[in-house]
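Q: Here's a chain of 429 amino acids. Please give me its 3D structure as C-alpha cells.
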Amino acid sequence: MIKSFVNPSPETWETLSERPKLENDSVDKRVSEILQKVKEEGDSALKFYTQNFDGCDLSSLWVSPQEITEASLYVSKELKKAIKTAKANIKAFHKPQCKEEKRIKTTKGVACWRKQVPIEKVGLYIPGGTAPLFSTVLMLGIPAKLAGCKEIIVCTPPQKDGSIAPEILFTAKLLGIEKIVKCGGAQAIAGLTYGTQSIPKVSKIFGPGNAYITAAKQKVQQEGVAIDMPAGPSEVLIIADRSSNPAFVAADLLSQAEHGVDSQIVLVSNDPSTVEKVTVELQKQIELLPRKEIVEKALTNSFSVVFETLKTCFEFSNAYAPEHLIIASKKAESYANLVVNAGSVFLGNYSCESAGDYASGTNHTLPTHGFAKSYSGVSVDSFCKNITFQKITKKGIENLGPTIEVMAAAEGLEAHKNAVSIRLKSLKK
C-alpha cells in the first residue's frame, strides 16, 4: 500500500525525505501571471479568476453583513457548541503568549526593553474547495485578535453559487471578524499584497494552502509583504513501537492523507511487526472513507521505515522535520527531549493529531516541507513585531561612552565616535 524501507543509511535520508512535487515550473509561471494581472487590473482580475477557477460570477467581492448574519441559521447547534469549545481552548493556550517585557539595566544608567506591537493590517487565507477549513479561522483569527491587529481581512474561495461555507462565516462572526472576501487561490494572495479597489493592502499574510498558494506567498515576499511561513501540503510522521495501537496509528495516518493528493504520511518504527499490523489496518480503514480516492493518491507519496533502534527513528524524524509528529508509545513523554525538528508534537497513544487540528488549544498552522527546521507554528507572536527601546542617562553615557568610542574608532566610523565624544565633552563643562 505504501513503500517500505528497512534500515536506510543516513546518506539516503535526504532523498527519502523529499516531499511530493508538482510541476514547479508550470506552477511558478501561472502564479507569476496571476500576480501581475491582479497588480495591474485589481478587482476586475480577481473577478475574472474567481469566475475562471471557481465558476462563480460575482457582482461584489465582499461577503455582505446579511450573509454573515444568516450563516448562523445553517450551522447546527451541535457544531456551534463544538466551535465555541474549541475557541475557548485555543484562546486559553494563546492568551499567555501576550506578554509585557521587563526593562533590563545593562549598565548603570542604561536601560533597554522591548515593546510588543500588533501588526496593524493582516490577511488570513482560509482554504475552501473540497474541505472548507473553518477551523483555520479559529487558528488564525484568535491570535490575531489577542495580538490586537486593527484590521483583519479574510479571503476564502466561494462556491459556484457565490456563497461561502456557513461554518466559516459563523466562526468569523464569533471572533468579531466581519471583513470577508470571496476570493481564493493565488489571486487572493495578490489582492492582499497589492491592494485593489475593494481589498486593502495588508502587511502580513497568513494561512495554509496548496502549491499555488505557497508559491504565491513566497513570491509576494519580494513585494514588501511578510508571510507566516511556507505552509504547503499537509504531512504527518508517526514513530510507533510495540506499545502503540496499530488501529490508532492507521487512523492518524489516514487523517492526514485525506487532506489532499499531495499530502504525505510517514510511519517509522523499530518493530517490523508493528508496521505490518498498521499496514493491515490501513487497508481496512481506507475502505470506509468517503475521500478514499484522495487518500489512495496521497499514499503513493508515502512510505514506512524500519530502523533497529528508537534512537535512529528519532534521528530520521529530525532529518525529515515533520509538520506533525506523533510519538505513539506508552513512554512517549520520556522521548520528548529527542525531538529537535517538528511543527507540533503529539505524545502517547491517545494524543491524536486531529485534536491539534481542532480543539486541544495548540495552533494547526504549521511549517511543512521540512521548514520545521527553521520555522515555528503560528502564535500570537506571529501577529506582532517587537520594537526595542533604550534610555541612557548622563551617568549611562559616562559609563558606556568610552566603550562605544573605542569600538567605533576600530571600525573607522568617526561620526559614530563623535556622537558619543561630543556628549562626553559636554558633561565636562
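Q: Can you summarize the key feature?
A: Residues 233-376 form a domain with the Rossmann fold fold (CATH 3.40.50.1980).
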